[in-house]
Every structure is written in C-alpha cells, then in structure tokens.
Design brief:
The protein has a single domain, classed as 3-Layer(aba) Sandwich (Rossmann fold). It starts with a strand and ends with a strand. By secondary structure, it is an alpha/beta fold. Helices cover 50% and strands 15% of the residues. A five-stranded parallel β-sheet has the order 3-2-1-4-5, sandwiched between helices.
C-alpha cells in the first residue's frame, strides 16, 4: 500500500517559511521513504498568494520532488468539491484526503471541523 499525506495551504506556508521543523521533516522523510505528498492546486495557489515572493523558490523545489503530486482543479474535481460543500480551499484538501485515505497536514485543524471524521487531520506542532 502506498502511504501519503495531503498538504494544505498552512502546511505549504510553514514549509516555505521554515516555520515548522515538523513540516521540514515530513517533506524530507517523504523523499527518503517514498511517501507521496499531494498538493491541491488551490492550496498551492493560495500559498503563493500569501507568501512573499522570496519564498516561492522553496515551493518550486517542493513541486519538483519525485514524491510530489499536484491535484488539479479540473471538471471532475470541481463536481466533487461542490458535493462536499464548504470553502473550496478546504474542500479540495478534504477531497484529496478522502479519496486516498490519507491525512491532511495542516496548521489549522478547525478549518476541517465541518468534515467531521470523514477527513483525518495531522496537525503541525
């Protein structure tokens, strides 16, 4: 079975800014152990918007890792998000996690409260 994590905007921002030792360790352990990191395209767009441009190269490195998979917001995914409800950004991460049975890594677990136990959450310490 393939293991993985879904990184939401807060996890991407924490990694890019080097604010979380856990986020750093998660990414580099994923590379060493071949753990897939799913990045919802909406989360990446939001992170790039929130971050000072000096942090953008860090996210480029993340995007180019062999374990990184970007989940696009295509027609199929848009329908899924519409069915899940809630804010698009949160629903996209939740949909990726539900579909794969992997946790969402986040710095803000409250964002996913409306999804209840349908989405496993891994909170950045």
């Amino acid at each position: 079975m393939i293991n993985g994590r879904v990184l939401d905007t807060s996890a991407l921002v924490a990694f890019a800014r080097r604010e979380s030792v856990y986020a750093d360790a998660l990414v580099w352990t994923a590379v060493e152990e071949t753990i897939v990191l799913v990045i919802p395209s909406t989360a990446m767009a939001a992170a790039l918007t929130q971050l000072d441009p000096k942090y953008h190269p860090v996210l480029e490195v993340l995007l180019n890792l062999p374990v990184t998979v970007v989940d696009p917001l295509d027609a199929r995914r848009a329908r899924t998000l519409g069915q899940l409800g809630g804010p698009q950004l949160d629903a996209h991460a939740a949909a990726c996690a539900q579909e794969r049975g992997w946790p969402v890594v986040t710095g803000d677990a409250d964002r996913y409260a409306e999804f209840g136990d349908r989405v496993e959450i891994e909170v950045l310490p």
